[in-house]
Design goal:
This protein is an all-alpha fold. The chain contains 14 helices and 2 strands; from the N terminus they run H-H-H-H-H-H-H-H-H-H-H-H-H-E-E-H. Helix 4 packs antiparallel against helix 5.
Length: about 260
């Protein structure tokens, strides 16, 4: 694989910790390529703030240097669109796809647990998994935010690191389907990610169809600490209100983005 442009490590360091533990069953080259794919997916699914918009030429060059694969093809299709858009267009499209549409929200535990007490426990369990692996997200985003989950997978490897992705595969399928139905170029990033996971089973397909038809579970009692929104209220049963947006997850604390300031 061609070496990364000199500016890529600086971008990754601000958003993803640099250390990587490579799984024994992959060659070093395969592990490096897989880690880079996961990191690229994480970066491209973050809010397109000024830093990310400025990095678009470097990201495009990095994608072009990937070894040939279905995932690389999907990311190339996305970066072609991503590079051609004005920053304001990217920001509006991101908010419309991920903040205003419940079926393409990037908070994975919602698809598995909905607005129930189990979702709060799932978030706590995910945080414990990160801490046990020695990773601190600095609290910039909820632990189930897909870019955060992808960062952890890149750091820790296909075993335990990718376990949350496998656990939430059905939610990922639903997000991909929703983005495809909306004709959003972000569908290519989800498609790239799905090529890295085991193929869906018949049970997975049936569960996704049920999610499409019925939505995630909900309950009127047992509100958990992650269920608040607005001024300390709770979402009505059957209504998903994503948690308040936060700056992109970074290893070092940074000033809030304009997206965060605009929503408070």
């Amino acid at each position: 694989m061609s070496p990364l442009p000199a500016t890529i490590p600086a971008i990754v360091r601000t958003r993803v910790r640099a250390a990587v533990r490579r799984p024994a069953r992959l060659t070093p080259e395969e592990a490096e390529a897989r880690t880079l794919l996961l990191r690229l997916c994480s970066l491209l699914l973050q809010y397109p703030d000024a830093e990310l918009a400025t990095a678009r030429p470097v990201l495009t060059t990095t994608v072009e240097a990937l070894p040939p694969s279905p995932a690389a093809d999907h990311l190339a299709a996305f970066t072609t669109w991503f590079t051609d858009q004005e920053p304001e267009v990217l920001e509006r499209h991101y908010v419309e796809m991920f903040d205003l549409r419940r079926k393409s929200s990037l908070y994975l535990t919602y698809y598995l647990h909905g607005d129930t007490r189990r979702r709060g426990m799932a978030l706590l369990t995910l945080n414990q998994r990160y801490r046990a692996a020695g990773w601190d997200t600095d609290g910039g985003e909820l632990p189930d935010h897909l870019p955060v989950v992808l960062e952890f997978a890149a750091l820790t490897g296909p075993g335990g690191g990718e376990a949350p992705l496998r656990q939430h595969r059905r939610g990922l399928e639903l997000i991909h389907r929703a983005l495809t139905d909306a004709d959003s170029p972000y569908r290519h990033v989800l498609a790239a990610l799905l090529t890295l996971l085991p193929p869906p089973t018949e049970a997975d397909r049936a569960a996704v169809a049920q999610l499409v038809a019925e939505g995630p579970p909900n309950e009127e009692v047992g509100l958990d600490p992650y269920g608040t929104y607005g001024d300390g209220e709770f979402a009505p049963p059957g209504t998903f209100v994503p948690p308040m947006p936060a700056p992109p997850t970074r290893v070092q604390p940074t000033a809030p983005t304009s997206r965060t300031e605009g929503t408070r």
